[in-house]
Amino acid sequence: MTDGKPYVSDVALADSVSARRASPARLTSTAADGVRWTLLGAVASFVVQVPYTAVMSRLLTPADFGLVGLAMFMLRFVIYFAQSGLSLAVVQRPVLEVRHVRAALAVGIATGVGMFAVCWFVTPFGVRVVNGPGELVGVCRILALTFVISAIGSTAVGLLRRDMRYKSLALTEFGSYLFGYCGIGLTSALAGSGVWSLVYAGVGQSVVMTAASIALVRHDPRPLFSLCAMREMASISTQVSCVGFLEFLTTSGETFVIGRYAGMEILGYYNRAWFMAVLPLHQVATAVNKVLFSAFSRIQAEHARLKSAYVDSLAMTTLLFLFMAATIAACSRNAVQVLLGEGWEKTADLVPPLAFLGTLNVVTYFPAATAAAMGRVWQKAVIEILHLAALVAGVGFAIASESGIHGLVIALLMCRLVQHVAYVLWMGRVIPGSVRHVVVSYMEASLVALMVGLCVLAVGHAADGIVPATAALAAQLLTAALLAGVLLRYGKLLKGIRVVHQRALVPTVFTTIPRSVTTHRKEG
User: Fold this and answer.
1) How many domains is the chain partitioned into structurally?
2) For the chain, which terminal residue's Cβ has fewer other Cβ atoms within 10 angstroms, N or C?
């Protein structure tokens, strides 16, 4: 196969699967299967993270988590450019040739090595800016190795996503997490490595993820350092990277502020609250978003299908994430006591507002993914600049008023609301008629979340002081699970539930049999 020929994956080569996937029924089936696998991977990772976090929180100190959190914040200043949005560029490009794949690999290697070198020399200055301890320099430099490792594998990951091989991706991501964090990280922590156990875990996960992705795709391993081909791949990836950098500033700026003005210990409390409140939402949203971006990219020129997919995805995901946020907020006290143990009480106060902040954050993924799939990247940048301006003003007011970390979280919540409203209104112009459907879905999801939160909170209060925190938390989670089952079975008046059933995203046990069908069976 020469460089000028279109890239054809092993999946597409068999019976022209990529052609069949272009049909509405095939694309819906493939996307639904992808959502199931990515959600399964996200849930499996979270199930493993719970005991992992419980153990690590007892082996390490809040300052250790704060140190790594600050290091990741500093590194994310360059991580978007190190990866250059190559995975998304590979997925979004309408026609992909072999030379584009090789050029993407070349861009990844060049930017990864370049950003690692920049990080190595600039880190000491950055540590002084954030007022961090001297140990932060070494932590940042070792973690920067992931730039090179991930950049090399980003092309392979993009090809897997382009072919919608989400079962392979889910298994690879889960396996790399097990090896990196539960294997290397936990072993290092037990050996007394302290904060370095978190560093080794991150590097180990990147190595396994990159190696497995390349082994699954087996694309041409020769990088093509051709300026023309590299420019073609870098055009969209550079736009994605710039917008991603703006998104990073608006989502992670609080890490700098807390670390700079409140210290490593408070940052550690915030970091653990973020893990409990936002990470579950983020993992599920990222899983769904990966599939939807690939699907949206395939139908970017079919406006009717794109509108239906956009409205349906928002209805489904808003209901899901507000349900999750209400449950997380209501369980915060018992969850902190069970998972983190003694000494983490300050974290419990931060979990409820961060849960709803996280919901606004992840629900925004889907209009943003739709815009990116349509190639409207610079319009996204305008919204992110507006969000950044609101964030600077809000954080500045919180600092000036000395309202503490709780005032900062409230400011972040309001700024995220501004961003989300801007996205919905803009998408209403891009996809006419979508705003009304979105508002109805939001109202339904908010009402459900309120009812679920009150029920779960009532169970927690009833169990308080009567049974251990572990039993109380189990009762709250069981209540939420039962409510979810009832909602899936009988909640078809809600648009989000109708979408879930129409897209065949739930087991048949939650599907009620229409009366006409049962009558027909009796007559037969």
Assistant:
1) 2
2) C
